[in-house]
Specification:
binds pyridoxal-5'-phosphate; 396 residues; Aspartate Aminotransferase, domain 2; alpha/beta
């Protein structure tokens, strides 16, 4: 049997490769950070990790993870509701709720699971989900697993959202779902307008804070802080894999009854292993650190501002950003790939994106700026951008 199937897979893989879409992985041999070491010993500056607060190799988090492992063991060997819940799981859930000013939190193995398990337990075929067209794949998959009627509105387009809300009035309950920050442009969802429309058209609001948490808002507490919407967003989902330490883990935080219902019925929670104690120990320490000081968030914001201003002054076409993500527009797909490859040769890791990841004719380099970057790192990257930009005719 495998022979025919193997041939089919080989052909498909070749088609992916021929289309230039094959994803090759680079192996890092150092901790994640601003400077990384590759297999073979070559060093590079990393501008394509989600390590927004620079915590991936933070000594305090590493120590807290080790301590939790010493005291509570390596793994839980159980789902939460059978015998996999420790006091530190609840402590981390409470710490996340405090950070976001919500009632309670439920932990998942990943935000992919949080989004995959949020809709189906709460909504039925009588209800409606109204989703931004650029929402993350995990939201799209979560919506697919639920029988609610689906509506899609153009990215951050409030007139279109209003149309869809009108269309959805026949349904029992409606929920508007959006990413907090969209990962290709770095723009923040217009949450104030979304909440106004939700009130006007009697809808719940859910936001995925994966790229916004730790970054957006006066102290990085996400979109509710940015727009002063405390008490008006019903559900936040998020990841521990980006700003919050970069290891693994996801969560849904929000209204008490919603969290209670998810604990009863959310399938990725009920039928998947508990987070290991070290993740909880480090997570608790992380939220303590973020309570104590805003230093990392401030540095991250200053770094983005510095980088963007220097890039604009050099003549690059950068999208306005309100996050840690900066899109340097090149428009041409092959150019974006060539540019990223030349940057890598210069020792700078950035990512070139083109259709279908971004709209046709909107190819770009995406730069992700971290609190781990020092001025010297930023200056090196900017110098490489200018050198490659001139070489490839992007700059005059
Ligand atoms: C990264 C990301 C996720 C997935 O998070 P994991 O915890 O890695 O599964 C979900 N939603 C959005 C918007 C993301 O950016």
């Amino acid at each position: 049997m495998y022979g025919k199937f193997q041939k089919y897979l080989q052909d498909e893989l070749k088609a992916i490769e021929d289309a230039g879409l094959y994803k090759h992985e680079r192996n890092i041999c150092s901790p994640q950070g601003a400077e990384i070491t590759l297999e073979g010993g070559k060093k590079a500056l990393n501008f394509c990790a989600n390590n927004y607060l620079g915590l991936s190799d933070n000594p305090r988090l590493i120590a807290a993870a080790k301590k939790a492992m010493d005291e509570r063991g390596y793994g839980m060997s159980s789902v939460r509701f059978i015998c996999g819940a420790q006091d530190i799981h609840r402590q981390l859930e409470k710490a996340i709720a405090k950070y976001f000013h919500t009632d309670d939190t439920i932990l998942y193995a990943a935000c992919f699971d949080a989004n995959g398990g949020v809709f189906e337990p709460l909504l039925t075929a009588e209800d409606a989900i109204i989703s931004d067209a650029l929402n993350h794949a995990s939201i799209i998959d979560g919506v697919r697993l639920c029988k609610a009627v689906r509506y899609r509105y153009a990215n951050a387009d409030m007139a279109d959202l209003e149309e869809k809300l009108k269309e959805a009035q026949a349904q029992r309950f409606r929920i508007i779902v959006t990413d907090g920050v969209f990962s290709m442009d770095g723009n923040v969802a217009p949450m104030d307008k979304i909440c106004e429309l939700a009130e006007k058209y009697d809808a719940l609001v859910m936001v995925d804070e994966s790229h916004s948490a730790g970054v957006v808002g006066p102290t990085g507490r996400g979109v509710a802080e940015e727009f002063n919407l405390y008490g008006r967003i019903d559900i936040h989902t998020g990841t521990l894999g980006k700003s919050f330490g970069g290891a693994v883990g996801g969560f849904t935080t929000g209204r008490q009854e919603i969290i209670d219902m998810l604990r009863q019925r959310s399938r990725p929670y009920l039928f998947s292993n508990s987070l290991p104690p070290m993740i909880c120990g480090a997570g608790i320490e992380l939220f303590k650190m973020l309570e104590e000081s805003d230093e990392l968030h401030t540095k991250q914001q200053e770094n983005v501002k510095y980088f963007r201003e220097k890039m604009l002054a050099a003549g690059f076409d950068c999208k306005p950003t309100q996050s840690a993500i900066l899109a340097v527009m090149l428009y041409d797909a092959p150019l974006s790939q060539k540019f990223a490859a030349r940057m890598a040769e210069e020792g700078i890791f950035v990512t070139g994106f083109y259709y279908p990841v971004v709209p046709k004719g909107q190819a770009r380099i995406r730069v992700q700026i971290s609190a781990a970057h020092e001025k010297g790192h930023l200056d090196k990257a900017i110098a490489a951008f200018i050198k490659v930009g001139k070489e490839l005719g992007v700059l005059k």
